[in-house]
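Subject: mismatched residue count in predicted assembly?

I count 954 residues in my input, but I want to confirm that the predicted structure covers every chain. Input:
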Amino acid sequence: MEPLGQSRGETDIYLDLCEKAGLLFGKDGFLDRLNAELGIKDPYRLDLATKPAVRDIFDRWAKSQGLTEGIRFFESNGVWVKGPVSAARYYGSAQNPPFSGIRQRLYGESLLRYQREMQARDVAKVYWQDYTPFPSWRPPTMWSSPAQYDLNLISFKKVEFKQGRASQIPLLAELAPQQRLQINPRAAKARGIQDGDTVRVESHNAVTGVTRRVNVKAELTEAIRPDTVGMPHHYGEVARHPRAKGQGPTPNTLFFTGEGYVTNTNDSSFHVRVQVSKA
Amino acid sequence: MARYAMVIDLDRCVGCRACMEACKVENNTPEAAFWMYVFRLEEGEFPNTKLSFLPRPCMHCDNPPCVKVCPVGARYKRVDGLVATDWDRCIGCRFCEVSCPYGVNYFNWKSPKMNYYLEWGDPTVQQATNGAIPPYKNPDLDRAYGPEQRRIAGSGHLKGIIEKCTFCAHRVEVGLDPACVVNCPAFALIFGDLDDPESEVSRLIREKRTWRLLEEHGTEPRVYYVGGAPPSTEAHQIEAVKARV
Amino acid sequence: MATRLESKTLPYGVGHLTVAWYVVTAFLLAILALGLYAYSRQLGEGEIVTGMRDIGTMGGAPWGIYIAFVVYFVGVSFAGITIAGMVRLLNLEHLRPIARMAELLTVITLVLGAFSILADVGQPLRALINLPRYARPMSPFFGTFTLVIAGYLFASLVYLYLAGRRDAAIMARQDTRFGWLYRLWAAGYTDTPEERERHRRTTFWLALGILPLLLTAHSTLGFVFGLQAGRPGWFSALQAPAFVVLAGVSGTGLMIVIAAILRRALGATRELSIGVFRWLSNFLMVLTAAYLYFMVVEWLVSVYAAPSAEARVAAAVFRGDYAWIYWLSAVALVASFVILFVQYAARNHNLALAVIAGLLVNLAAIGKRYEIVIPSQTHGTLLPYGEGLYRPSWVEYSVILGLIALGVLLYMLFMKVFPIIEAPESGEVA
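Triage response: the counts match. Full output below for your records.
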């Protein structure tokens, strides 16, 4: 069927993209790779110098599979899978993982390569400091924030909600109607904060110096360390639902996603240091 | 005749409050009424803080103070142990509410129709819900139950009367367990017949060390707890649902 | 025979409507209208318009000033019938002039008490039908509603009726608008010595019968609270006797105030002599002393080594959110006792001071009723729910004010229809 509206088939887009990027034609170009990937055999191989129509590509593929009518076969008969497909063919070693699946990658050679490459290109350290082949510790970026940001901010999930979409459900919201900052009573007392007070939480990005702040009600609990404050997710009116109005902010506002805080590897601390004061 | 009781295993309870929601949905309780309630308690000072969870349904006491004080006999004790409220007879004096040491009674301060979370008369809501009128009218909640054939099930019937946990009398009537029991993801709530020696409640009471809330008040509650401990005077609520209507 | 008499010659202002009377009546009707409007809001929207809420997860008090005033009104009714009864039983002739106003106070405040209960229940129509239909003696409420309203009120009405027959007969001889009422009331009364003797005997035995009834009624009112083991602060053997005594205190105090007002309004300085006030003041002094004793005992027991739940309620009452009500009431009671005692010791009774004492004890009684009813609900949960909050709303205040206005209105209306002070016993009737 024809694409709807202004949308286009993805292969059309790839062909145009590659043509614009100069990667479409010639050896090792997109068309050459297509021939290999789709297993298009002679005499149906795509000509590496002309831009084909998408239908043509799949017609040649079909003929390479042994269907003389080409793609018309599927247009008349629909698609069917030929024969049972073995699980091993698709899932491979996941069926019988080595060491019964207990496997932790301890050493990543590629990460070392990326690191060395970026160093060679004189890229700033903050961009490659976490590309270490072995998981290695470094002081969390947040420790470089000034001393006035004296509390660690952690966030967590609540059992009542799923993501940001559940806090507008009235029955669930009744159990946890509003956002709260969990703070230890000793820490609260030192800041003149009582249970239920509205407080200002300000976070600091140690790399860029940007600060962000939210106002939220405080809940005093002994179940958190005096040097840490916690704020659950699920609020923040992200669903923009009228019933979620006034529930309070999301801790995501206070976290940063830039370098030093969030990396491509799974091993960094994105937590921030905050200062809390009565609003 | 059966003798119903509930056993709550506090070693299994994770304080998720699914039982509160299940009860609410099953019995159509209005806003801020929690027939089943779960305390999230904390005591001690950091780093020696202890968290605990305590589900609190109605205790369906064998010596119920609420039954004694009801001036019209709307609150009564069934032979099978359930303490039920006849919503046809209740005059809303709230004597049962002030006499209950556990605080399990809920009075309909508003007309229930006005107390169900949304503005059901609002045209946009009507459009979204296709003209539904809350609560979902489960016809089982309007029927008469028990050998006395009195109307005791469900919530949100009238303004100005008292309602409380019924151990899902309308479910027990047909051999099902209460909604909270059935919905607990940790299987922490167990319901059954004490007269049946092989039922899980009988076995648990026989084999494990159990305790009951406020036993020294002589109310003889029918809800037994396994594991955990009675809340100390130091314990206070965190994440309380201080819902005022 | 019966000639048309000017209304001025009817005793004690009966039928005499002054401008002041109209003004006061209009004012009271306005307050009553406010009360009715507030109650209509409550009937329409439910008791959400009050400040009452559920105990427990909702952190409120389901019994508020409606119940506090039920106790207060029923408490005040004690004095009326007691004084009237004592006149008969102890032959306190010099108190005879206040007997009828005391009986009227009892009847009216019992009616107000009943209306307070109806204002409080969530389904008042059902209450009217189901309470008599399904009455359970095991419930202390039975004692309150049935013994008090049905028994006590009925007995008081009978007493008022019987005691008024002679005056009705006197009034019936004059040509007045309410002649039909007087004739009905006095039906069959002939003012012969035998009749008077029979009358005296009947009222004597009725008074004797009412006194234990009223003791039971006030005790069961105390039991409404005192029997609840699940409510720290309420569960106490002291509640029943303390209620009886405070009832006497508030009722006697109010009698002093009413008698003083009527003495001024009717110019009845002869009938309502200082002697009457002296007796009432001394009686009030004794009762106040007795109640202060109860308060000291209650305080001592609460703060010595009470269990944690009771200690929590006591802390809220003596040092916390309710301290101002408690201590103001205590100071008012002590002040009034001092006033009365000094007068007694100096044998010099001043009317104005007596009235002040009477007002103080009534304010203290209201404060004390509030302090009994509310703190055990908001601060007396046995499971760790935390503290609660109760703040009465305008609806509750309006309904209570409306009821008080109704009471005063009924009193004033009665006074215009029937002599509020008994004609002297020895007076000859033509």
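Chain C touches chain B through 49 residues (CB under 8 Å). Marking this ticket as 'not a bug'.
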